[in-house]
């Protein structure tokens, strides 16, 4: 049987990983898309509209415009992490990951396939929330290239993190631990609802040490041009995380950690 | 002289916790052979198969498929192998058609070729009526047919069947036997593990018996069947088990 592998890359195999994951995603559209959109809408309505009506402008922007990038980023992060961690864990748990292990797929193709779906799901989630922001006249994009950089790169960072957790987890309990103890608290504390200047002095170091602070500020800068972080620091940190996590995932695949017996 | 379909040389597999699953296995399966790989539970059959197909990493030894190193040149080697595993390692919410089609995709088959081949396999294994149901809704026999169809989607030259008829009713077992005999006749090499010695007698020409991670006996089916007590006695003696009813005879 002739296989289509121009330049040695199994493009059809890679695309099949994407097709399979999209099909899996579309079995639970309410869980995957509708739930984060509703949660985003509630955040927009309560924190942006109800509470925001009592807060003065921040940096010349309405409070709703200020919080929207953070709400988008929180949901992008969650979508990215949940997609890759659950896909890997479920396929290990049911053992159908063996379908890809016996196929002529390289580690790079397997990782690229997983990350493509991560970026797709996170982007659709993020754009859905931005669409809702339009109804409140709160969605703006100051720089499309930067906006796309933040959506794609942060999705990939948390997609890679999700792969690591999916490979490591031995139970559904372990799979959910990073969301409960890491993602939700750090994203809430990462400047979604406030500037670092609003925090008491002793709490500011916590924001500066929180990577989410840079992601949220980066996206806020791309959307409304308001960014508290030093120029380039957030981009540098994100690229560094991408390289470090990418290398870790590559190493785990090469060792067969959680994959091969 | 053409390379054998499968050549295993001093394979050893030790799991992370120190369990030695395969001690030292060497065997050669010539092209076109219908080869039985027998042994009691825990003898190392499935682990050997996992090492051949990439599900497990060999600790030591060499595996070649049609002369291609199964570890170093794994992409080329895997194109030549189709695996029908013992367990249903399948997404239970996917349909038989999706399962077979996706596998073709992983092997790099273009959409048109996948569709033609999937259509043929759905028909051949009488899955047409069930092709849009979820895998979890199918009976055990239908599930077994789906997994076999999945193993054949990319038209592999070497087909590895790990207890393909376990839990299958008599009628389907006979259908599967007929089909396996046909594809072997078409030139495909088949490596079969089974606990049904009747199945082995009916289908296979060469037999290797493993026990405790070692090949303890290898020969032709005719040779073993021709011995007093037949294949069953040869199997029991090779694996060190003396069943009472055989001993009493």
Could you explain how this protein is built, in words?
Chain A has one domain. In chain A, helix 2 (29-51) packs across helix 5 (107-135), helix 3 (63-94) packs across helix 9 and helix 6 (144-168) packs parallel to helix 10 (233-255). Chain A has helices at 11-26, 29-51, 63-94, 98-101, 107-135, 144-168, 172-188, 201-208, 211-224, 233-255. Chain A is built from ten helices and no strands. The two termini of chain A are 29 Å apart. In chain A, 73% of the residues lie in helices and 0% in strands. Chain A has 261 residues and is mainly α. Chain B is globular. Chain B folds into two domains: 1-80 and 157-169 and 188-249, Rossmann fold, CATH 3.40.50; 89-155, no CATH class. In chain B, 49% of the residues are buried. Chain B is an alpha/beta fold and 249 residues long. In chain B, strand 4 (60-65) and strand 5 form a beta hairpin. Chain A binds chain B through residues 1-5, 10-13, 15-17, 19-20, 23-24, 27, 91, 94-106, 256, 260-261, and chain B through 15, 47, 50, 53-57, 74-76, 78-79, 81, 83, 85, 87, 89-94, 98, 102-103, 105-110, 113, 117, 150, 154-156.
| CATH-assigned fold name of the largest domain in chain B | Rossmann fold
**N-to-C SSE string of chain A, H for helix and E for strand:** HHHHHHHHHH
How many H/I helices of chain A? 10
Counting DSSP E segments of at least 2 residues, the number of strands of chain A comes to: 0
Write the layout of secondary structure elements.
The complex is a heterodimer of chains A (261) and B (249).
Chain A: H1 11-26, H2 29-51, H3 63-94, H4 98-101, H5 107-135, H6 144-168, H7 172-188, H8 201-208, H9 211-224, H10 233-255
Chain B: E1 6-14, E2 20-29, E3 34-38, H1 45-53, E4 60-65, E5 68-69, H2 74-79, E6 81-84, H3 96-106, H4 111-124, H5 140-152, E7 158-162, H6 170-185, E8 189-193, H7 197-203, E9 206-211, E10 214-220, H8 221-225, H9 230-238, H10 244-248
């Amino acid at each position: 049987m002739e296989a289509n592998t121009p330049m040695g890359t199994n493009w059809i195999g890679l695309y099949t990983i994407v097709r399979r994951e999209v099909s899996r995603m579309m079995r639970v559209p309410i869980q995957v898309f509708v739930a984060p959109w509703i949660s985003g809408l509630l955040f927009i309505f309560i924190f942006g509209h109800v509470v925001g009506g009592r807060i003065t402008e921040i940096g010349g922007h309405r409070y709703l415009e200020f919080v929207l990038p953070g709400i988008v980023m929180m949901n992008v992060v969650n979508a990215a992490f949940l997609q890759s961690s659950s896909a890997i864990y479920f396929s290990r748990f049911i053992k159908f990951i063996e379908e890809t292990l016996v196929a002529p797929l390289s580690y790079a193709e397997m990782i690229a396939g997983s990350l493509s779906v991560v970026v797709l799901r996170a982007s659709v989630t993020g754009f859905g929330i931005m669409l809702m922001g339009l109804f409140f006249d709160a969605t703006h994009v100051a720089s499309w290239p930067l906006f796309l950089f933040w959506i794609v790169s942060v999705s990939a960072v948390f997609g890679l993190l999700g792969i690591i957790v999916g490979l490591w987890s031995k139970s559904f309990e372990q799979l959910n631990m990073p969301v409960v103890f890491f993602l939700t608290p750090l994203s809430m504390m990462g400047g979604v609802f406030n500037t670092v200047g609003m925090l008491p002095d002793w709490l500011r170091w916590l924001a500066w040490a929180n990577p989410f602070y840079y992601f949220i500020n980066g996206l806020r800068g791309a959307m409304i041009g308001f960014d508290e972080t030093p120029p380039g620091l957030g981009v540098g940190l994100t690229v560094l995380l991408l390289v470090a996590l990418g290398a870790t995932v590559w190493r785990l695949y090469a060792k067969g950690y959680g994959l091969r017996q | 002289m053409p390379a054998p379909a499968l050549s295993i040389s001093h394979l050893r597999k030790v799991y992370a916790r120190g369990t030695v699953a395969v001690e030292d296995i060497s065997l050669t399966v010539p092209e076109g052979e219908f080869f039985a790989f027998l042994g009691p539970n825990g003898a190392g059959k499935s682990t050997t198969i996992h090492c051949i197909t990439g599900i497990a990493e060999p600790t030591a030894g060499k595996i070649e498929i049609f002369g291609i190193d199964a570890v170093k040149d794994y992409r080329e080697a895997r194109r030549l192998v189709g695996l029908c595993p013992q367990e249903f390692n399948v997404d239970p919410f996917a349909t038989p058609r999706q399962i077979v089609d996706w596998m073709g995709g992983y092997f790099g088959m273009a959409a048109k070729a996948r569709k033609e081949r999937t259509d043929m396999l759905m028909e051949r294994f009488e899955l047409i009526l069930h092709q849009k149901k979820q895998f979890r809704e199918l009976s055990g026999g239908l599930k077994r047919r789906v997994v076999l169809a999945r193993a054949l989607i990319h038209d592999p030259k070497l087909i590895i069947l790990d207890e393909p008829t376990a839990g299958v009713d008599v009628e389907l077992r006979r259908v599967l036997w007929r089909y396996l005999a046909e594809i072997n006749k078409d030139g495909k090499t088949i490596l079969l593990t089974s606990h049904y010695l009747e199945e082995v007698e009916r289908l296979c020409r060469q037999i290797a018996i493993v026990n405790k991670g070692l090949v303890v006996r290898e020969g032709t089916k005719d040779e073993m069947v021709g011995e007093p007590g037949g294949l069953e006695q040869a199997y029991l003696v090779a694996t060190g088990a003396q069943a009472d009813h055989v001993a009493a005879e």
